[in-house]
Amino acid sequence: MEFWTLKPGKGTASLQRKTASSPALGLGQARVAIKANSLNARDLMVASRMTPMPVADELVPLSDGAGIVEEVGDDVTRVQPGDRVVITFNPAHQSGPYEAHMAAYALGEMRSGVLTREAVFEEMALVKLPDEVTFEQAACLPCVALTAWNALFEAGPLMPGQTVVTTGTGMVSLATVTLSKAAGVQCGVTSSEDDKIELARELGADFGINYLHNRDWDSAVLERTGGEGAHVVVETAGPPSIATSVKAAAQNGRVMQIGLKGLEGPAINPLDLLVRGVRVIPVMVGSRAMLERLVAAVSFNNVTFPIAARFPFEEADQAFASFARGGGFGKTIILHQ
Questions:
Q1: Which of 1, 16, 209, 251 is spaced 20 to 30 A from 197 at the CA atom?
Q2: Distance (Å, rounded) from C-alpha 333 to C-alpha 37?
Q3: Can you tell me the distance from the alpha carbon of 151 to that of 279, in angstroms, rounded to the nearest whole number?
Q4: What is the pLDDT of residues 295-312, one digit of tens each?
Q5: Separation CA 232–CA 209 (nearest Å)
Q6: How far apart are CA 251 and CA 104, in angstroms?
Q7: 3-class SS at 33?
Q8: What is the CA radius of gyration of the chain?
């Protein structure tokens, strides 16, 4: 069995391709041949040991993968050999709200991830894939797409005709645009780069706001929405912009806090929360049950997420290097032959 390892704190240059015997199959487990992976910003944070979560000294990286069940152990009932599956980001988060103790079970941090030809998982970590969802599209789902899905649909209703605004044009924001348009809602993005705004519009965004030219970009959101504001703001930066996101939200709207790109920023006005009923809700990816609902929605609506680059498994180190350089618009995919 071939796999890649990474030494957190040593950077992506520490990636090594290795071989070992296939792991044994235990009770309630299934062996999966991985067919596709995708990279997330989190993977670079792990490589540089910049993640707020503890990480192992050496591990198989990546959390996002999809493949085919090769073999199942005793008492396995959810999957069988030949099933196409996507792997849950955090197998400990099966349903319900996220709890702090689950952090230790997220793949690709303290636990080895999925940049491997095959791996053994508890059957409850696997979600079946319909034939319509390709492996490379499935590999886009476990982290950023599920985070966007959670932010949009799991904390409250999102109705056709409403407005979503997402900050930045990273992959969570691109997934937000894609899923928002599939749901029939208006979606806007903020960015400091006009070319990124134009690419987001080509993906389906209805409007874009350059926050360097519009420091009080909440006013621009209100103008675009006839004074109503955004029913959901997907906040990917954190303290630097969350106070503005709250002001951009509609009455009884919600601000879904995902990313942290700084710890300093203007304070939130309590009156925006008390008088206007705006809720600020943290999002920690999502559960396996949410992933099942996302897979069903992606399949039914024929949703596809943008792919920026593809690399073979043998060139996973080059995939990391390309992803680290940035500039792509969409997911970086690693394909297994």
A1: 251
A2: 6
A3: 12
A4: 999 999 999 999 999 999
A5: 16
A6: 37
A7: strand
A8: 20
